[in-house]
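ok so i was messing around last nite and threw this chain in just to see what happens. nothing serious, just curious
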Amino acid sequence: MNHTRPVVLTIAGSDSGGGAGIQADLKTMTVHGCFGVSVVTALTAQNTIGVQGIYAVPLDFINQQLTSIFDDFDVISAKTGMLHSSEVIHLVADFFKSHPEVSLVCDPVMVAKSGDKLLRDDAIYALRRELLPLSTVITPNLPEAEVLWEHVIQSEEEKEAACKAIYQMGARSVLLKGGHAEGDMSTDLLYDGETFHRFSTPRYATKNTHGTGCTTSAAIASNLAKGMDVVSAVAEAKGYMDTAIRFSLAIGHGHGPTDHFAAVERERERYTVLQTLQTAVEHFSGHPVGHLIPEVQTNIAYGLPFATTHEEVAAIPGRIVNLNGRPHASGCPSFGASRHIASIVLTVMRVFPEYRSVMNIRYDPALLEKAEKLGLAVLSFDRKDEPPSVKEQEGSTLEWGTKEVLSKTDRVPDIIFDTGDVGKEPMIRIIGRTPMDVVNKALRIGGVQTEDMG
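result:
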């Protein structure tokens, strides 16, 4: 059986530290389901601390690499990274003039994360004049855009003006990356000559962002090779980068790299979460503990590691009902299936990241007494103490109540309960590391002897 993948070319420098350059590009292309090929323009002696040396690859050998690639491969898209001299830029631009069918993403690499200069002054003019007019997308960060535009960029109006000015230099679209800006959100600005598109993700407190520019441009080139339009390619790349930065790697003693494989590992972890939750639900349903199910029914939630949104927490759609004295799940586990229980999971995980599962059961003082006799830590909050501003926000009570409890203890409780309010059923909520952990606690409280107390 024949199988193929879209071929994507990276023309860039080699990063001996592995976090940027050719190495980052090829990892990114592989994760995106593409076949990466490369033309090395320079060798760097580089690590997370800085660039200790640069060896420029001779022009004739760069040309030989380009010729070798295009003689054998049907290149769909390409990206450029470290093009350290005007001569290299001229060579690459001349080559792509002969291959207008290739979508070209230009990452105008000028300075390394450590501050080391990677592009000579004479090359900046050549990049503007020769490479930009051939580019499907150019992806400058704020400092690079300031160099290209020759103006300081501070306000939103200046960002838009910079995009328009760079677009006028010939690029078909301009992606101004917002990683060097300030604020809680990192917003990239894409201009296609007619419309501005904004892509925002949370800004994470990490120094491990080495190679983000290389990785972003490689992801965009990969998405273009798979047939996406520019807006979709950039949006998908932004999501990929959010995960890569969020789970960045503390490798080395300086600016560590992003995790190019985090998205793949995250997808695998999603499967594990669903399977683990399903196993726990089946275990719970195998016992005659229908008396634990409240009027609003039961749910069990399980978050991905480092979950921050409801969509990263799995639960049972339709919840778990009491059917002939036994728990019965109304559906299979899925992500985003619960906001109420998921809110508690997310709130607990902010303080105790390893405690990723919560389930609710019927409120009964006898059940609480049994829990305490079993040695479980039982704490509560009072809905009457809830501030009016919280009550006005639908679904905020559980997050507030959980925060209230956790602010008064240095350990995670096994149970958080409340005695309800007008129109609000009292409830017991069980907290654990895993779904099997909370299910076994519930079974013990419900009078079932379990061997595995997980």
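not much to say yet. The chain has two domains: 7-259, 265-445.
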